[in-house]
Amino acid sequence: MQAIPDFGLGTFRLKGQAAIDSVSTALELGYRAIDTAQIYDNEEAVGQAIAGSGVARQALFLTTKIWTEHLSRDRLVPSLKQSLHKLRTDHVDLTLIHWPSPDGAVPLAETLDALAQARREGLTRQIGVSNFNVALMRQAVAAAGPGAIATNQVELHPYLQNRAVVEAARAAGVRITSYMTLGYGKVLQDPVIQALAQRHQATPAQVVLAWALQLGHAVIPSSTQRAHLASNLQARALRLGDEDMARIATLDRGERLVDPQGLAPRWD
């Protein structure tokens, strides 16, 4: 089973030509992991960009996420097949439950059974969750079995370091994928981040991405600008010292940027 790549491209909020251009440029620059979702309404654009890139499908790691309306046993697999059609592929490498079923309307075990069925049918290589708190993540691991939940994709950045979820995930053998790693750009203005960037002759974004990578998380930053896409990729080569990591650790203030009413679970 292919490990989740440390570094990928996120496509949240990118639609139409913007999504096509971002994915095309990223693939040209050497990105090989692309993250999308049914609700992003850009799977077709992502599929078009991949088809036109000349990059072999087996060289890519594609992730999509099942929307809450499709979490039931009878809807999940058909919805995933629709996603595959849009993405112009016969399988994705990772399929996530995008958000827990609101008010538990669809039992988690039912959704995980449907995901396991999708995996058996070869529609997805791995399965995982997104926006799960500690209790839900533990339920998912218990229901799916040891090693079955590949990742929990959560909002994680210097202002929201999500330590309870991170520790629980590590104990359960679940990889954390950090989304919103740059905090909508907000954390890039932080004096500590800017000072570290200056000292390492790096960009603030590179410092933050390197921090998340060194913590062992996968990251999926997005951008529509070629220069930023190229620059972000260089974060993989940046090594922060223990003191640097400790300074960033002090920035945590529990500042959550994504908390949709009716969707979000009770956060830890």
Short description:
The chain is of the alpha/beta class and 268 residues long. It is built from 10 helices and 8 strands.
Structure explained in plain terms:
By secondary structure, this protein is an alpha/beta fold. 41% of the residues lie in helices and 14% in strands. The protein contains ten helices and eight strands. It has helices at residues 16-29, 43-51, 73-87, 108-120, 134-144, 163-172, 191-200, 204-214, 226-233, 242-249; strands at 9-10, 33-35, 61-66, 92-97, 124-130, 149-155, 175-179, 218-219. Strands 1-2-3-4-5-6-7-8 form an eight-stranded parallel beta sheet. The two termini are 31 Å apart.
How far apart lie the N and C ends? 31 Å
Tell me the strand order in the biggest sheet. Answer: 1-2-3-4-5-6-7-8
The average pLDDT score comes to 97
Q: What is the helix fraction of residues, given as a range?
A: 40-55%
Low-confidence stretches: none
Total number of strands? 8
Oligomer description: single chain
Number of helices: 10
What fraction of the residues are assigned to beta strands by DSSP? 5-15%
List the secondary-structure elements in sequence, H or E. Answer: EHEHEHEHEHEHEHHEHH
How big is the Rg? Answer: 18 Å
Query: SS-based structural class?
Result: alpha/beta
Shape: globular
Characterize the biggest β-sheet.
8 strands, parallel
Chart the SSEs and their pairings.
Layout lengths: L8 E2 L5 H14 L3 E3 L7 H9 L9 E6 L6 H15 L4 E6 L10 H13 L3 E7 L3 H11 L4 E7 L7 H10 L2 E5 L11 H10 L3 H11 L3 E2 L6 H8 L8 H8 L19
Parallel strand pairs: 1-2, 2-3, 3-4, 4-5, 5-6, 6-7, 7-8
Helix pairs in contact: 1-2, 2-3, 3-4, 4-5, 5-6, 7-8
